[in-house]
Amino acid sequence: MSQHASQYKGSRLDLKAPATIPPATIPYFLQEQIRDLIVDGTIRPGQPLREQELEQRFGTSRSPIREALRLLELSGLVTHVQRKGFRVTLYSEVQIRHLYELRAELEAYCLRQVASLPDLGPLLDQLRRLDAARDDAFARRDIRAYLAALRDFYLVGARHTGNAPLRDVLAKLYEQVEPLRYMLARRIFESGVKPDLTEGVADALERGDFDHAAQLARGHVLTALPGILEAYRDTLAQDAQAQPRLPR
Q: What fold characterizes domain 3-88?
């Protein structure tokens, strides 16, 4: 058994695909299971995803494993290297900066778009509910719920305006950086200090100051970037199979 395979022992990667799942949906079940393991760092950045090992762990045939990996490749979490197979996407510092800078601009644009809404009441109510959900998740030490509430806070504007292309692009960006967000969130939870990553946005929207709301959103995203880079460097340095320094 390889080093990485032994690392999986006892983890959720030992979970078998339930016999009750229709064959057509098994790849989607596998996609979600492998995705969760990539996001929470059980499977490390740059780590090979060997189809034979995954087949043995999940008790499935090779075909649904391969289809699940293709779906994860479409999301950006997995990369296929010719003649080497699939592996967890390994980002460079430049790529991470590009992803976060693009997110910052799109989230700012999204909040400017809500100026066209005839009634901001439902949007503001939802933003405040999501803020409360984030606080509750932090108090419960639930990283996944915390990240989901924070993500939805910034996606809800696109949903309310009905701008499907913007919503889809933002959702794809969030999916690509979800492992990075999880790394930073783990550090935040360990510190016990919840950062203000949504502060002032709903209040600015309520005043009708859409430009200020957009500037706040952009600033919140960019403020997280140094912590993201530091957490990613440390993760790579701790992994004997990854490069000790973040590639540039």
A: Arc Repressor Mutant, subunit A (1.10.10)
